[in-house]
Structure prediction request, 137 residues.
Amino acid sequence: MSKKRVLGRGLDDLLAQHDQDLPFLDAYGPSIGESEGLPSGVGIDPAEQLMEAIARLLQAEGHQNTELMTSEVKENGVHITVLSGGDKLPLVPSDLGAPGFEEGKLAADRSEASVTIVQWGIPARRLLERLCEHWSG
Prediction:
């Protein structure tokens, strides 16, 4: 008389059961791997999609036309260069070495940083949101 153990339900099952639409999650762009049918966190986004996601986040934060950041589409991602705009950037070298980043460099005086974003995810959003908060302050 042993009961068969059932695995817990995932987020998709819960959302389907409660029929909730969460449009605010789309504010930062599609999930990684969504278009290829891969699970989140797998693969590298095409550079154009990365550029669009960066632009959407900057627009949402009110910094879409900032002269303190330049971005350039590269073969492997989007290379951004940011300037402090006065005070030192609120970054440390490890911030630019997070998953999804390549070629991260932070000036010794923290007045400038550059990094190539090769994968959209939490580290990329967090970096850009911190920069926008710094520029607003």
The first strand starts at residue 69 and ends at 73. Residues 68 and 85 are 6 Å apart (CA to CA).
